[in-house]
Every structure is written in C-alpha cells, then in structure tokens.
Design goal:
By secondary structure, the protein is an alpha/beta fold. The chain has helices spanning about 15-30, 45-55, 65-70, 90-95, 110-125, 140-150, 185-190, 200, 215-230, 285-290, 345-355, 365-380, 400-405; strands spanning about 10-15, 35-40, 60-65, 80, 100-105, 130, 155-165, 240-245, 260-265, 270-275, 305-310, 310-315, 320-325, 330-335, 390, 395-400.
Length: about 425
C-alpha cells in the first residue's frame, strides 16, 4: 500500500463517535495519511466512517472485528485506540509489542499496574504513544505554563479544578438478554469478567467500575486534571488523596457516583476537584469561544481551573478556553492568553512524531500520571470515602489496604496484561 517512505498507514480500533472523529481528523490534518482498517467488535458500527474515509482516500478501509488483525499487518504504522476504557491499557501494550505507534484516548489506564506496563511497553519497544489529552497541544496551555513558571503569579497556594457536567438522567438496570446479532460480546468484554450480555453494560459502560472510572471523572475530569498538571509544570503524584460524594440526583443501581469532591495533597499546596452531573446553570466552553479569541464566562464555566498565587489568580479553560489572570483590589485583568480548540494540532503532532520519532506533546508518562490521579480519587471513594497515602518513591498506596486491593484489577485468560 505504501507508495513512499513518508506515508503513514493507520488503523482505527473502536469506531464510535470519538474514534470516528479522531481518525478523520488525522487523515485531514497532514498529507500522506491513509486508513487501512476500521476495527470494531460491533458490526453495526463503523459503516459511516468507512464511507467517509473512502471518499477522502479513494478506497474503503477494511472492516475488522479483531484488533490482532491490525497488529499483524506490517503495513500499519499506527493505531488509534478509542474503545471503552477497560481495553485502553491492554490494547496499547499489544500494539507497542507489535511495533505500532499508538494514539490512545483518555482515561489511558484504570490502575497503577496498567500505567506502569504501558510505560514499559512504550519504552522497551521504542514506540510513539500520544495520549488523547489534546490540551497539551494548545498554545494557551504552553503560555499559561510559562506565565506560572516565570513566577508572575507568585507562589502557588491552592488550585481549584471543576468538571461540573449538566444533569444526569434516571436509570433502570435492564434484564440480561442474548447478545445482539453482529456483536462479539466476548471481545467487547475482553479483560473484564465474563458476564451475560446486558444493554445497560454495553451502552452504559461508563456507569460500571469494570469498564470505566465514570463519565464525569474518568471521561471528562481527566482533561481538567491533565491541563492543571501541565500548567503547574507537571508535578508528580500527590502525597494524600481524599474523595467524598455519592449518587445524589437518582438513588439508582449505578456503581459510579454522580457527585464527587476530591482533595489532592501536593505538598506546598492542594488541588481540589469538583466532579458532578447536575443542574443546567453550569456548561462547558461554547463553540463560539473555542474557535475565537473570546473567553468563557468564568463563573459558570463547568470545566474551568482556578490557580491561586500570591500575586493573582489565573482562570484557565480547557479545549480552547484560554486564560486570564486577575489581581489587585479591583480584580482587574492583568494578563491573558486566548485559546483555540487544539484537536487538529494535537493530531498533527502525532503524525509528525511518527515521522520524526520525537516525543509527542502528550507522552504516555504524563497521561498515566494524570489518569492515576483520577484513579486514586475513585479508589478513595470506593474504599469507604477514606484517606489514601501515596509512597513518593514507588507511587504505591499506603495506609489503606482496601484501596490497594481495589487497585489490582483481574484479567481473564487470554486477555492478561
């Protein structure tokens, strides 16, 4: 297939809405990029993206069910992993061992062991792994980091991060049924426990600890925490973590809470995180801000970060929100940097790094550290809303045996890490 050494051949693994969007952006953002496979365990998914890619590149990508088919093809340079979260680590490790570069969506891992083994696989096999935390390619992220690093905000005293999504809906656990025709349920479950098919698991996987860390926390707050860490110069893991919350809006059978308040003890300062799913008075940065030089209305921006220093406070918005620093008795704007939605730049950076072998903007180490903070918060909640200590050298959980036990995930035979 490759007509030149500069061509990059991709495969998509997980043909849902996000995966389809990423793969099309990767084809558009750079010359010489083609997609050979669209892989999904569900035959009802992927048809539209196959047709769209066919119009772009002049031929249809092959449909595949088993990701191993894409790993075995020597013409494939890199894969995009946009499966449910419980597959992210295993698929990344397998791809690296097969000699493929990887673009993996967040949250990149669900346990400490998964994170360690992803880093090992990336390093040992000399692979490029770009995490889907696209704020790390935004100009506003770099300028906010530089402003803080230059000491212009003064000494950092506290950080407040928010991921307050619009309200959730009531939920009823459906009955177990035979898997629908065209779905490889065994392949969908992968490393997770074998259970009967249930549409509440299949379509609502964000509500189960077996497959996710929660749509608000793992699916969305992971972006906020990652951007906060980048702006602060990428600190390591916290010394202590505490998370409170629960199912506040609907007292239903979902495992994952809809309201969580987290405190990360970073040593000299703390990072707090509010993650929730209620109300319509908080909303994400709108499109007219993401693609312009405007700023959000910070008071009800649901995914903002507030970084308080001794000389001012920075309001930082992800996904193109930009940043503004306020200070003085009149709370004047004393500095600012506009934002622009960074998806395309992030995807172009991945293609560039495949060709140059330079480290990408969102390397696996930082993706794992940000994911680990989210995972630690969930472990605090799941272990009875109790305090976790973190060993500064090994990153191991201390003083909480239940949380340490929950951090060890099990993997079915044939799907081991």
């Amino acid at each position: 297939m490759k007509s030149s050494e500069n061509k990059v051949v991709l495969a998509l693994i997980g043909a849902g809405g996000r995966g389809s969007s990423v793969i099309q952006s990767l084809v558009h953002c750079a010359e010489g990029v083609e997609v050979k496979y669209v892989c999904d365990v569900d035959d009802t998914r992927g048809g539209s993206v196959i047709q769209d890619l066919a119009k772009i590149q002049g031929y249809e990508p092959k449909r595949a069910r088993d990701m191993q088919e894409t790993f075995a093809d020597k013409e494939v340079d890199a894969v995009v992993i946009a499966t449910p979260e419980h597959w992210h680590a295993l698929a990344t490790i397998r791809a690296c061992k097969a000699g493929k570069d990887v673009y993996v969506e967040k949250n990149v891992c669900l346990s400490s062991e998964e994170g360690r083994k992803m880093i090992e696989a990336t390093t040992q096999n000399k692979r490029i792994v770009q995490c889907g935390t696209q704020n790390r390619s935004g100009d506003y992220s770099f300028s906010a980091r530089d402003y803080i690093a230059e000491g212009k905000l003064g000494k950092i005293v506290t950080v407040k991060a928010y991921c307050m999504l619009p309200g959730t809906r009531q939920w009823t656990l459906k009955e177990d049924r035979p898997a629908p025709e065209g779905l490889d349920w065994n392949g969908w479950l992968g490393p997770a426990e074998m259970v009967p098919y249930n549409v509440s698991r299949h379509k609502g996987w964000y509500d189960w600890w077996a497959y996710s860390g929660g749509i608000a926390m793992s699916g969305d707050a992971s972006h906020v925490i990652d951007l906060a860490r980048m702006a602060l110069g990428d600190p390591g893991l916290p010394q202590n973590v505490f998370c409170a919350g629960g199912r506040v809006i609907f007292k239903d059978a979902r495992e994952v809470p809809d309201n969580q308040t987290v405190v990360f003890d970073m040593g000299d300062y703390a990072i707090s995180l509010e993650s929730s799913q209620y109300g319509d008075y908080m909303y994400k940065t709108p499109q007219e801000v993401r693609f312009s030089d405007k700023f959000p209305e910070w008071r009800n921006n649901s995914t903002r970060i507030e970084i308080y220093g001794t000389d001012g406070v920075m309001f930082l918005g992800r996904h193109g929100g930009g940043w503004q620093v306020f200070g003085g008795r009149k709370f004047d704007v004393i500095a600012e940097g506009t934002g622009y939605f960074p998806d395309e730049k992030h995807h172009r950076n991945f293609i560039d790094c495949i060709r140059t072998r330079k480290e990408p903007n969102a390397p696996v180490k930082q993706g794992v550290l940000s994911a680990t903070m989210i995972n630690l918060a969930n472990l605090s909640y799941r272990s009875g809303k109790s305090l976790l200590g973190i060993d500064p050298v090994t990153g191991a959980i201390t003083g909480n045996e239940e949380a340490a036990r929950l951090d060890v995930r099990s993997y079915r035979k044939g799907f081991e890490l």
